[in-house]
Write a structure and sequence with these properties.
Length: about 375
């Protein structure tokens, strides 16, 4: 089974509902993702006080030596994060010697593997989770493929219009950027810089809403200082905040990376795509960095402005792939909000283009 849908179309809701229902019926079922943040959050929330429930949540690379058809159903959430192979530096030597495609391991592990994905959320080199990749491999094994497309938007206030607006804004759908007309279901604003962005989001927190701020990976990422304070790496015109933590332990009031989107204290750090992907919050703030800028009538990707170590090797990630991935990154960041999104950019031309499309920030 392949279930496709855009941000907030209910893929994870469906996966978790199926997990509960199939488990109650006595079926052997497991939920898996390629995201440490997502899996650890599910283990903490759904598996609270239950070791048996925690064991239902695994990672894509946990099935290298799994028994063929050992499960009735394997629910593969965020399947756009499937990688070429499960092999890593921690893989046992005997498994490393004859690596299999990760998609082959996942298909083999269950009688019914269910892939839930949005292929516009592929944000790292080596991720191969597209409908075409999965269908091609399944058919090469002689397997029947059933596909379900979800067209009801749950996130973004139920606003399919906003998701389409974002995809046209970033050139992921044809037609080019268009003015935001609004539809009453979702609020879009342009902030006058990151300080204004933070102030607006803070007012939403004070009003009882959830809020988080994210940015493109365009600034260095330091480890915490010896005294436990965080380095304010994300710096723009005298404004500065630290990135979310990288590790699995809290530092002071800052939650561990996997819980940045859901734990109290996360607002004080800027999140990256790897901690935001798969989550949502009421109000979503996005800082567009200098790696994607608007020039006259088109987007220009600036590879040298991006600090993501996964993108450094030009031989591994060509310019065309970098441009595709960086647009997908901002698509993910821009579609985390359930009530509204507030956007700003470090680039003057980009900021002006956004203001022209959405409205004057001083009047919002």
């Amino acid at each position: 089974m392949i279930v496709t849908g855009g941000p907030g179309s209910g893929k994870s809701v469906i996966a978790l509902s199926l997990l509960g229902e199939l488990a109650r019926r006595g079926r052997t079922v497991v939920h898996a993702t390629g995201s440490r943040s997502f899996t650890q959050t599910l283990r903490k929330v759904a598996g609270h006080r239950s070791t048996a429930t925690k064991s239902l949540f695994k990672y894509f690379n946990d099935f290298m030596s799994a028994e063929r058809n050992g499960l009735d159903v394997l629910l593969l959430d965020e399947a756009h994060r499937i990688r070429e192979t499960s092999v890593s530096r921690w893989t046992a030597r005997d498994l490393r010697a004859t690596p299999r495609p990760q998609v082959d391991e996942l298909i083999a592990a269950a009688r019914v593997p269910v892939f839930l994905l949005d292929q516009h959320q592929v944000v790292r080199p080596g991720e191969l989770g597209t409908v075409e990749d999965i269908e091609q491999h399944a058919r090469s094994l002689g397997l029947t493929v059933h596909r379900v497309d979800l067209d009801v938007q749950f996130r973004c206030g139920g606003s399919a219009l906003y998701v389409t607006w974002v995809q046209r804004l970033l050139g992921l759908e044809p037609g080019g950027p268009v003015p935001w007309q609004g539809d009453g279901a979702f609020d879009v604003q342009v902030a006058d810089g990151p300080r204004d962005l933070e102030d607006r989001l803070h007012s939403k927190l004070e009003a009882g809403f959830g809020a988080r701020m994210t940015a493109g990976y365009c600034w260095p990422w330091s480890n915490p200082r010896e005294d436990g304070t965080l380095v304010p790496d994300v710096m723009v015109d005298g404004w500065a905040k630290p990135w979310n933590l990288r590790g699995d332990r809290a530092v002071g009031a800052a939650p561990p990376a996997a819980l940045w989107a859901s734990e109290e204290g996360g607002f004080e750090q800027v999140g990256c795509v790897y901690t935001a992907q798969g989550f949502e919050y009421d109000w979503n703030g996005v800082l567009l960095g200098p790696d994607l800028v608007w020039r006259t009538d088109r987007w220009v990707s600036v590879r040298g402005a991006n600090k993501d170590p996964d993108f450094r090797n030009r031989a591994k990630v060509g310019d065309d792939e970098f441009e595709r991935l960086v647009r997908n990154v901002y698509k993910v960041l821009l579609t985390r909000g359930m009530i509204g999104t507030i956007i700003t950019s470090v680039g003057p031309q980009t900021q002006q283009m956004l203001t022209d499309l959405v409205g004057n920030p001083r009047q919002q």
